[in-house]
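Exercise 3.2. Students should predict the tertiary structure of the chain below and write it as structure tokens, then compare their answer with the key that follows.

Predict this chain's 3D structure.
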Amino acid sequence: MKERFETFTVLINRISRNIRKIKNQEMAEYNLRSSHISCLYYLYMSDGLTATELCERCEEDKAAVSRALDYLEKNGFIVCESKSAKRYKSPLSLTEKGKHVGKKIADKIAGVLDEISVGLTEEERIAFYRSLAIISESLERVCKSTESRKG
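Answer key:
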């Protein structure tokens, strides 16, 4: 069991670290970090998202998304059209600069996904993602169970 735990945690950490490295290396020319990339990607794929919707899609907390959006707005990647409504409920849009970088991000993601799928059949890929979803949901249940015992 110890070996299974070590293999699982090491591989998950390695995957996460490599994803962050790819994001940071690819976007260094734009002075963007990993959290910025996720926001730009989701806005590129679905223009007009709110900060609340980005929190859900990026699986990030409100403060982290808020910091990323502030940076992206100050640096000309996004605009917030509505000035009257609560900011976190206002739709955000990409500027031309944001659309250019968003396309580059989407293209890079597509290329990476193609590259990591080499050697996997479609059935293996589907089973892998299904397994990841089951593991994620199970870990979430464990976290909630642990929280409820402490609270």
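Discussion points: The longest strand covers residues 78-80. The chain has a mean pLDDT of 89.
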